[in-house]
């Protein structure tokens, strides 16, 4: 069973869920874009030897929104993760990230290698693009902070909200309902997302290929990179940079499936891979 817990930081409150016991390895779990801490409900109970804090990023799930004028930026997210770790008294820790969480986690591991013991990335790693695109994304991040009075769609029922998420992402009903359970609120006319509308248009810091190579060079943590959907263009761009490097500390494992593979039918295989990796049983030559 998990317990709920809040991290009252100096600038905001981050909310999340604990899994495991305090005797386990300190581990922070990072969800994907527009998801929340429930993203790890299907694998966290089965990961052995870890003490996991699955956190909601700012503006997601039950965590506070950023203050008016503040940017929803991957750099701010990295700062929040370090603040959470400091609040928990964790000088070093493991990171488990999915999608956007894997992007941000890999950046943290490259920027602050002395803080990260091991890194597990589920269908995500630091994103890369040509310089003109990365600059455009930086502009979009700034522009999104100026949004005022924007609102999210209201659904007449919880079931309608679930159906829409399934249609938009291709998730099955079970995983969609799991995310919506923590990510919805009741409003006049039905249900809507808890998400801060200003998040739309923002996202993790994307690097050029040269910058990604430099970041990968900095990562000291033993890294497991689980690849589920190579058809995602943003992920394939990253793989085009990372795979030819043949870094001894980065193990790439293909586990074909849905982008939310850790919440879908192959979640048990994800659990097995992570447990084998954490406990040194993963065959890196397979």
Blueprint of the fold:
Elements lengths: L2 E6 L4 E7 L5 E6 L19 E6 L18 H15 L4 E6 L1 H12 L4 E7 L8 H14 L13 H12 L3 H11 E4 L2 E4 L15 H10 L3 E6 L5 H10 L7 E5 L12 H12 L8
Parallel strand pairs: 3-4, 3-5, 5-6, 6-9, 9-10
Antiparallel strand pairs: 1-2, 2-4, 7-8
Report on the architecture of this protein.
With 286 residues, the chain is of the alpha/beta class. It folds into two domains: 3-146 and 201-278, Alpha/Beta hydrolase fold, catalytic domain (Rossmann fold, 3-Layer(aba) Sandwich), CATH 3.40.50.1820; 153-194, no CATH class. The protein is 34% helix and 20% strand. The protein has helices at 74-88, 100-111, 131-144, 158-169, 173-183, 209-218, 233-242, 267-278, and strands at 3-8, 13-19, 25-30, 50-55, 93-98, 116-122, 184-187, 190-193, 222-227, 250-254. The strands form two sheets. The chain has an eight-stranded mixed sheet with strand order 1-2-4-3-5-6-9-10, sandwiched between helices. A two-stranded antiparallel sheet has the order 7-8. β9 (222-227), α7 and β10 (250-254) form a beta-alpha-beta unit. The chain starts with a strand and ends in an 8-residue tail after the last helix.
Short note summarizing the structure:
The protein has 286 residues and is of the alpha/beta class. The chain contains eight helices and ten strands.
Give the CATH topology of the largest domain.
Answer: Rossmann fold
Number of structural units classed as domains? 2
Top-tier CATH class of the largest domain: Alpha Beta
H and E order: EEEEHEHEHHHEEHEHEH
Biggest beta-sheet profile:
8 strands, mixed
Radius of gyration: 18 Å
List how many beta strands DSSP finds: 10
Report mean pLDDT, rounded to a whole number.
Answer: 94
Strand percentage, roughly?
15-25%
By helix and strand content, what is the structural category? alpha/beta
